[in-house]
Amino acid sequence: MVFWESMNEKTRLIVKIAAVTLGVYLGFRYILPLVLPFLFAYFLAWVVRPATEFLYKKVKIPRIIGGSISLAVLVSVLGAGLVYLGNMLIKQAVSFVRNIPIYLNILADKLDNMCSDCDEIFGLAVGSARKMVDDNIMNIIDKVKTDIIPGMTAKTLNFAIRMIAFAGILLLVFASAVLISKEVPEIKKKYENAGLYRDISRITIRLADAGIAYMRAQLIIMVFVAACCTTGLVIIGNAYALLIGIIVAILDALPFIGSGMVLIPWSIIMLINGNIFAAAVLFTVYLVCQIIREIAEPRLIGNRIGIRPLYTLISMFIGFKLFGAAGFILGPIGLILIIAILTAKPVPAL
Questions:
Q1: Cα 15 to the center of its chain, rounded Å
Q2: How far lies 342's CA from each of 5, 180, 209, 264, in Å?
Q3: CA 36, CA 330: separation in Å to the nearest integer?
Q4: Does residue 211 fall inside a structural domain?
Q5: 10-residue mean pLDDT series, the chain (350 residues)
Q6: What is the pLDDT of residue 298?
Q7: Which of 46, 48, 213, 260 suits a disulfide with 264, CB 3.0-4.6 Å?
């Protein structure tokens, strides 16, 4: 205590930031995996809470039953939507796989032309460039046969086991959400006057508001981008419009990649091939996607996150380095949590 009091205000702030940042990192690394199913359960219970409370107050249905009904309806609606989209995606993926030989023949013809041009440009014997390409392709095929395929066989069984475990986790989440719908109002009523509960509540409310605003904004933007891309690809007659549209929307949400990674090279290729209409449509789709993100993101998020876009980008990069792909979400959430803890003022006891 004496050591702490001997520090000046700036040093104390640095120590606080370091301690809170370390605590958030350790929490994400070691505690979050343990409580993640229950966080999902709490989110589901929060989503169906209005319906659960309506059934409880107006129809006099117990919360545990009302929560079960509300969750069952929510899961059914989401499941039906996912099945419909999944069915379309599977059909387009199967169609793509069936047409792979055709695409390979087209690619082979273009490769022959490119190799012939290389032979002429560099003064090589006819077929030299193609032979070098074929040798590299054979090396890749041998690598796949000896290393990748045996590994895939072992991973298939592991994947099946994980899917069974995942199904068990889903049941746990559903059951937890039902119990949370029943217990949380009573727990809140019992502890809402406690000082610690109110301190934690202020932090979690701010975190939830910022996190929900961020996630909702990204989801809405992804839906609009996917719809825009899918429409553009339908216009140019692409058979995999929905599949590619969803992939582009996912890439657009990643700050280091973006929709331009697919749409710009594609439009250039179409222009080189003489398909000016398709090139114009693809480039227009790219521009519209950028306009959607530039206009929608500030309006949907506003000042609710409380951090500048540059800091958000930095937190995403750091999160990616620390936690992989999940860091794109955990990074900004961690930054919001650090700011919320540092700026939260203790609530005096009543």
A1: 33
A2: 18, 29, 17, 43
A3: 12
A4: yes
A5: 63 83 89 86 82 83 84 86 79 76 73 76 74 71 62 64 80 84 73 62 66 74 89 88 86 75 86 86 90 75 61 80 81 80 56
A6: 66
A7: 260
Q: What number of other Cβ atoms are within 10 A of residue 87's Cβ?
A: 10
Answer whether 253's CB lies under 8 Å from 329's CB: no
**How many other CB atoms sit within 10 Å of the CB of residue 328?**
19
226 CB contacts (<8 Å, ≥6 apart)?
A: 245, 246, 248, 249
173 occurs within a structural domain? no
**Token digits of residue 172:** 């746990």
Q: Which helix (H) or strand (E) holds 54?
A: helix 49-57
* 142 in a structural domain: no
What six digits make up the tokens of 302?
Answer: 């506003």
Which residues are CB-neighbours of 39 under 8 A, at least 6 positions away? 32
Please state, in angstroms and rounded to a whole number, the distance separating the CA atoms of residues 308 and 219: 20
Structural contact between residues 306 and 339, judged by C-beta atoms closer than 8 angstroms: yes
133 and 115 in contact (C-beta within 8 Å)? yes
Residue 202 inside a domain? The answer is yes
- Cα(155)–Cα(181) distance, integer angstroms: 38
How many domains would you assign to the chain? 1
d(CA 300, CA 296): 6
Pairwise CA distance, residues 282 & 275, whole Å: 11
Closest Cα partner for 318 from 13, 25, 35?
A: 25
CA dist 1 and 49 (Å) reads 45
Backbone angles phi, psi at 84, to 5 degrees: -65, -50
Residue 288 lies in domain? 195-350
E strands along the chain, which residues? none
